[in-house]
Design brief:
InterPro entries: AB_hydrolase_fold. One of its GO terms (molecular function) is hydrolase activity. Keywords: Hydrolase. There is one protein chain. The chain has a single domain, classed as Rossmann fold. Helices cover about 30% and strands about 15% of the residues. A 6-stranded parallel beta sheet has the order 2-1-3-4-5-6, sandwiched between helices. α2 packs across α3. The relative contact order is 0.16.
């Protein structure tokens, strides 16, 4: 797929806000893209209120999407409901598209269940295998430093919150694993470089100079 759009919508994960995406937005702007940050209430609002607002934003014109964690599930859910949206490519950062064991662990405990709010169901079940027109790329981490390992059984390689296996949804166009933690994905120059590669070419290229 050939795409020339430079507009990129960035959306954050659970317990985050617009500020968490500022560093990545700056790197994309430096690379010549036009980033816009989409914020939503992850606990009191959740996906049910975020998805219609995101759809309206995406209806304004062609745009790629970069989404961290829960944000990836919100984006794919929106695109599965509205495959006609003009979104050529999506890069997910550590999104548990196959469902989150950490969220399942938290939901099973009285003292932590409420902290997931209205995002609990989507986090636990994940998304259906991808078959839409948009090309989806995943950048996962495998530095196991995060709160998730204390509240759920995360098996295999993981970023401290999400396991690599939980990011491997069927239908992805490309998948890469980096030595970074879940929150570290947001501040990595290498993540930004790979995202730019995917937006431009539909694939993650190999290791290279991280100058973004």
């Amino acid at each position: 797929m050939v795409t020339t759009t430079q507009r990129v919508i960035l959306t954050h994960g659970l317990w985050m806000n617009r500020l968490s995406m500022q560093a990545m937005a700056a790197r994309l702007r430096h690379a010549g893209f036009a980033p816009e940050i989409f914020g939503y209430a992850t606990v009191v609002g959740g996906p049910d209120s975020a998805i219609p607002r995101l759809v309206k934003r995406l209806e304004r014109g062609p745009a790629h999407v970069l989404a961290h964690s829960l944000g990836g599930l919100v984006v794919l859910s929106a695109l599965q409901r509205h495959p006609e949206l003009p979104v050529p490519r999506v890069v997910c950062l550590g999104s548990p598209l196959c469902g989150s064991a950490a969220a399942g662990g938290m939901a099973g405990r009285v003292w932590t269940a409420a902290s997931l709010g209205r995002s609990a169901d989507l986090l636990r079940r994940g998304c259906e295998p991808w078959a839409g027109p948009a090309e989806i790329g995943m950048i996962a981490g495998r530095s196991p430093y995060g709160l998730g390992r204390f509240v759920g059984r995360i098996h295999g390689e993981n970023d401290g919150t999400v396991s690599v296996a939980e990011t491997r949804l069927r239908g992805l166009a490309d998948h890469v694993v980096l030595e970074t933690s879940h929150s570290g994905l947001l501040f990595s120059a290498e993540v930004a470089r790979l995202a730019v590669s995917f937006f431009q070419n539909g694939r993650f290229d190999g290791p290279g100079p991280a100058n973004l």
